[in-house]
Write a structure and sequence with these properties.
The chain has 89 residues and is an all-alpha fold. Helix content is 91%, strand content 0%.
Length: 89
């Protein structure tokens, strides 16, 4: 196994992680920004007001994107298993 192959596998792993995590992070970002603007306008500084909606948004994103996320991770795992014969020997 060459250093170039290790870097390629690491890059593919990081790409897969970012792809899988991005929908949930995007939902949490949008909800957090919306609530922050609402708090700034109304001057309500309640911590649970930001915490609970973010959790709900991440749960909704997980439900919506779960089939796609599983497909992405399965494709990545299949690709890694296909590389094993080339790495050994």
């Amino acid at each position: 196994m060459t250093p170039q192959m290790v870097v390629t596998i690491g890059r593919e792993a990081l790409t897969a992680v970012l792809l899988v995590a991005s929908p949930m992070l995007a939902f949490a970002l949008v909800v957090g920004l919306t609530i922050a603007i609402f708090q700034a306008v109304t001057q309500i500084n309640e911590m649970t007001l930001t915490f609970v909606p973010k959790i709900l948004a991440v749960a909704v994103a997980l439900l919506i994107f779960l089939p796609w996320m599983i497909n992405q991770l399965t494709d990545f795992a299949r690709h890694m298993f296909e590389l094993i014969p080339g790495l050994v020997g």
